[in-house]
Fold this protein.
Amino acid sequence: MTFTPYDRPVRVAFVGLGRIYDLNVRAYAGNPDAEVVALVDPSPERRAQRHADWPDAQVFASTAELAASGLEVDAVEALLPIPLHVEGVIELLGNGWHVNLQKPMCNDLESAARMLDAARTCGRQLRVMENYLFYEPLRKLKATVESGTIGDVSGYHLKMVASGRGGWDVPMSSYEWQFQQIRRGRGILVFDDGWHKLATALWLFGPIREVRAWIGSTEVMAGIGIDAPTTIVWEHTNGIRGVWDITLASDMYLRSDYYTNDERWEITGRRGYARVNRCTGRGIQQPSLEVYVDGEMRSFHALDDDWASSFRDSGRHWLRWLHTGDGPLLWSGEEAVDVLRFALAAYASSAAGGVGVDPTSVG
Ligand SMILES: NC(=O)c1ccc[n+]([C@@H]2O[C@H](COP(=O)([O-])OP(=O)(O)OC[C@H]3O[C@@H](n4cnc5c(N)ncnc54)[C@H](O)[C@@H]3O)[C@@H](O)[C@H]2O)c1
């Protein structure tokens, strides 16, 4: 795709003004790279609430209304419920707007192909934003490993505990579309939140040649199962193996300003290890990154480890990209398909009893 960078502030529409708007918006506040010109949501309450942030923006109940208004828009921050991603993104691209889409991109490869085709046909950029790749402790973890501090990597471990108590309020309407996703076999922990963990694995160590998974389910209300306990293991093409365990702790209180998700990344090298102790929630209240080598532990006390900052920096990166065209996009639509393939390989493996599945072979 040929892309001409903007030499003026990018005119942006927010489409979807729900829970995650609160974090995505941080990239736009006080940012001279962008001008928020439109706010779109069918909910009058959400429109009124968010209009207070951008009194000069025009508000619309639908994308169709915005398109019909003739208002000039360059790019869209697409914060739609997952079941609306495919048709929603195709409509946005069709209006000639670049799209910064929230994850997960979509549920299957056929939908992904339709979205990429639309981007190609319309000559517009589709980005699937991955805020975790902008979380400073994870960036520092990657840099530490790449500097050779802990020696050659022997393997790594991701951990995630979803707790049922604490954190911010999530509207019941969000659970309704999450339940739709669950009924389609795309659970909250492995697929929705898990998308981030799979993305960090690809970002840290590159392509994956084999995935083995054992995806469980715990019924939390009639007909609704949460996809834990789950264990997923994989091997990158460079030979490094990763393992990720997902656990549900329904009654555990977790201090968090956002979702109640206790997460860790621990990379073991031949000489030492490096561990990120937390991300979304405040499970372990030690420094967010610790590096152990030769009997000494180094702790990083001054990283920006507020999870919300990763949204700010991911969004700013996108807005800068629109001005310069310099990559990487983190992620382009094509790269996001690799994350989708990783997830699909885990589902295929689990369904077949945990056999090894090559993500490039999933259909
Ligand atoms: N990066 C992350 O860590 C992270 C965290 C949470 C959610 N998300 C993603 O963000 C997206 C939105 O999630 P959320 O938690 O804000 O959901 P939400 O349910 O709180 O908000 C969705 C909003 O979209 C609006 N909407 C529905 N149909 C619409 C339409 N046709 N056009 C415009 N707006 C419409 C709803 O009225 C609602 O206000 C999802 O893709 C989700 O997976 C990402």
Notes: The mean pLDDT is 97. The chain is about 35% helix and 25% strand.
